Amino acid sequence: MCGIVGYIGKKEVKDILVDGLRELEYRGYDSAGIAVLQDDEIKSYKAVGKLKNLEDKTKDFASDGLAMGIGHTRWATHGKPTELNAHPHLGEFSYVVHNGIIENYQELKSSLQKDGVKFLSQTDTEVIVHLFEKNYKELNDPMSAFEKTIDTLHGAYAVLLITKVDPEKIYFAKHGSPMIVGNDDKGDIHFGSSDAALIGKATEVIYLDDGDYGYTSQEGISIFFDKEKKALNKRALTGDKISAQKGGFRFFMEKEIYEQGEVLSDTIIGRVLDEKINFEELHESFFDGIDEIKICACGTSYNSGLACAYLFERQAKIKTVVEIASEFRYKEPLMTKNTLFVVISQSGETADTLEALKMAKRAGLKTLAICNVDNSSIVRLADHTILARAGIEKGVASTKAFATQVMAMWMLSIYVAQIKNTMSKDEIKSELNAMRHIPNAVIVSDKLHEKIKRLSKRYLHGHGFFFIGRDMFFPLALEGALKLKEISYLHAEGYPAGEMKHGPIALADSELFTIALMPKTLHYDKVKSNVEELSARDSTILAISPLEFELADDFIKTTHCEHPMSEFFEMMVITQLLALEVSVRLGNDVDMPRNLAKSVTVE
Description:
Elements: E1 3-9, H1 13-23, E2 31-38, E3 41-48, H2 51-57, E4 67-74, E5 89-90, E6 94-102, H3 105-114, H4 126-139, H5 142-152, E7 155-163, E8 170-175, E9 180-183, E10 189-192, E11 204-207, E12 212-217, E13 220-225, E14 228-229, E15 235-236, H6 252-258, H7 260-268, E16 292-297, H8 299-315, E17 319-324, H9 325-328, E18 339-345, H10 351-362, E19 366-371, H11 377-381, E20 384-387, H12 400-420, H13 425-441, H14 446-456, E21 464-469, H15 473-488, E22 492-496, E23 512-517, H16 524-536, E24 540-545, E25 554-557, H17 564-585
Parallel strand pairs: 16-17, 16-18, 18-19, 19-20, 21-22, 21-23, 23-24, 24-25
Antiparallel strand pairs: 1-4, 1-10, 2-3, 2-4, 5-6, 6-7, 7-8, 8-12, 9-10, 9-11, 11-15, 12-13, 13-14
């Protein structure tokens, strides 16, 4: 959520900023704004809604020669989505943009108000610019004022600040929220809260660490930590912007569903060998003394962890517990040194998951991250990381990241089984063979997609959906329901099929839609019996299975049924496409559903 960009150079500043913000749209936002400083004058523009509204407001503005600017896409946390609450926020002579949460903002705001400061917004961010200006009036030095301001803030933040009293610099600070600074081959300076905003602009970048702050100018980049200047650790920035475009698909989400075969191939390459799993990122000694795994995640990543807990216990014979990160943080959890703490995050910036990881680190546990974004906060903090290799995922509702997370953990379960000798060589080879066939199981045929398009028109009403499954297919039911409600705004629940008779079956009637995951390879007869119970109560049944089910009102036949995971991945694609097509028929914004954000960097 929330995107930050910044620029110093001679190119048209507005275009650089707006283009950068457009690359961050996938993070989710409800307002946007920019501020440009040139010739000791700051021009600021803000708009609610899509970037098109900001572009309309700035159509008559252009910079000329050397100038600097900052920009932001906001997802409302403090205060409603209004122009006054949109960033950048202004003081008397300065502007600021900020990602994160200032936890002590009420205290700071009250103190500033007593000094006569008038606040225009309801946000926590506005205290930063007023605090900076107060400190500047006391110290008469912008760098000292900025340093004092940052020292006063509690919480998570990535900050960019421009000011008329130092019109050649952009001041920056990072603590708990991502921030990247880089330059191009002409020396122009670029900022972004994600690589996506810098691809095609900066040639080398610095991924700022927590506690870093400083300033940039035409002369270069200066970074400080604890008042000591740091050496610049620059890295080449590579990337292909075309890969982040829709490529002929209607939506990024649709494109990303179709990409799953390719990215799953990327996930297994070099890791699935002829007779074993190999992770260059790990050493077998890392698992010495480990006899329990605790998985911690949020949302879709939580569902992937829940699914793979079955694999860790079934294959690696290791006790596995899955926790929702936002609950784990506050339950005073027991953490013992024999536990491997695994966190899962698409963005690597998920606030609750990051804080849970910090708790595990403080408790002295070994930590492992399953993540899609290299150099993200979670990746940098964990002892080791297995990168999911899903590539840029722009659809807010995750698809290919979920697929690669599940694949990465399936491989990890076999890797642990190898170490602990809980599976025979033949059993391991069978799993490896199944893994190699998964990219084919997620290929979307025209026939399948067309069938789901036709079916979707029958599922636009009713009082709710139950996605049901057993074993690993229960977490897949949770994920299928989550995808549907995220983008269609229809009520949906995932449920263990065997639990329906313990209460939820009371809801069954013709207006209750049941999406039944009925794999041939796992508990088919049990699931079939549960679905028959719902059918007898007149629930409308959509069965997804390789075996014909005569009581189904609608039926989608699957073909990959040699291994439970083949069925898992094929059914995953079907539930994703169903959510997509229902949402399309309802006229919703599939890629940027209301109230949601791609990277949730606040609690």
